Amino acid sequence: MKLSKIKTNILGLLLAFVLVLTSIGCSSKTASSENAANATNSSTASKTAVYTDMLGRKVTLTTNVKKVAILRTMDIYVMSAILGKELDSKLIAVGQSFKQTDIDGYKKYSEVYHNLDKMTNVGSIYDDAISLETMVKLNPDIIIVDKQFYGYSCVNKMIEVGLPVVFTDDNSDPFYGTGKSMKMLGKMLGKEKHVDEMVDYANKKTDSVLKTVAKLEASNVKKPKLYFECGNVSPSEIGVTRGDTSNGWGYIWQKLGADNIGVGNKNNSMNPEQVLTSNPDLIVIGGANWNPDGNIMRLGFFATQKSASEHLDLYTKRAGWSDLNAIKTGRLSAIHFNITVHPFAFAGIEEMAKILYPDEFANLNPEKDMQEFFKKYMPIKDSGTFWANWSK
User: Fold this and answer.
1) Pick from 328, 337, 288: nearest CA to 308
2) How many Cβ atoms sit within 10 Å of the Cβ of residue 10?
3) Which residues, 6+ apart, have CB-to-CB distance to 349 below 8 Å?
């Protein structure tokens, strides 16, 4: 074979080899580009997720919620239990002034949250007056509102323009409703494990109470006759009762086995003579720190057993009350009016069970359980009193 022919063959082989390498390189680059594109598309897709809220609505949210808006100030308790100290930087708006509508809560949360005064007040959900323009400008990642406000004009408008409205349900079931809403929000906010543990802890306490009540009812134990009154007015006035057993306090007392004398009176004030005639076995006053000036039944983070007992004593001065069985036996108590929509509602349920059936629930220690819950799950420290008994 001639030398020139050999060189030609060698050059041909080298050229073929280079072409193969080039082809492999191009294929590798093409595959890498395709993989990168797929990864990008996957990443983009993972930035949002579809959830179901407490109204059964499908809601698309970012998987990295950074801006939270609540349309009811009391929901800060639930959100703080879920997000802890993270909420301080994520909460951007409330429906009403936190400082004005929850004096104790604002003061307490100010100890750990330093941005409370920077939140935008977007209007009153109770007055159907949330500012759509403000909400759009804030561009929140999630807007939390209870389903009792479903159908309100301001809420409908937010949904219509595509704002991420999520409905909770704290009122349909005072025993487990808040926990169900919390579990839903836990998924949405990436805190599922933490929230499930917290809610399961609370539910076990509630389960235990209701199981015992069911046994008492099955054994035909006499139901204690109860009078419940909201203490948001002076004891010299007559506060409203709760006689609607389909929801709220009327439902709570019925479920706990009380013979509520207010049933049939809806949510109106009872005639004083009717209370005297009914002669209840026990009386419970619903309290909170609704305003700083009124002579009200004040309970909460900064109330004391002493101050609460002294206020309860004022009720005993009402005409004819000294002759009531409840006053004669010292069964006059107070419970925080909003406790059932808080993450620690189970402790209030335990206390109510003790009020109704002191012997059967003698081993319950609501104070200890509440302290334990706060230590484990709340970003603020337990303080004050959310229930109290009158001391003669």
Assistant:
1) 288
2) 10
3) 175, 205, 206, 209, 252, 256, 340
Q: In whole angstroms, what is the distance from residue 258 CA to residue 253 CA?
A: 5
Contact between 94 and 119 under an 8 Å Cβ cutoff? The reply is yes
Residues facing 340 on adjacent strands? none
Instruction: Walk along the chain (392 residues) and give the pLDDT tens digit of each residue.
Output: 443 443 344 334 333 443 333 343 434 434 444 444 343 344 444 599 999 999 999 999 999 999 999 999 899 999 999 999 999 999 999 887 788 888 899 999 999 999 998 889 899 999 999 999 999 999 999 999 999 999 999 999 999 999 999 999 988 899 999 999 999 999 999 999 999 999 999 999 999 999 999 999 999 899 999 999 999 999 999 999 998 888 889 999 999 999 999 998 889 999 999 999 999 999 999 999 888 788 999 999 999 999 999 999 999 999 999 999 999 999 999 999 999 899 999 999 999 999 999 999 999 999 999 999 999 999 999 999 999 999 97
Tokens linked to 17: 């080899």
The vertex-146 CA angle with 143 and 150, nearest 5°, equals 95
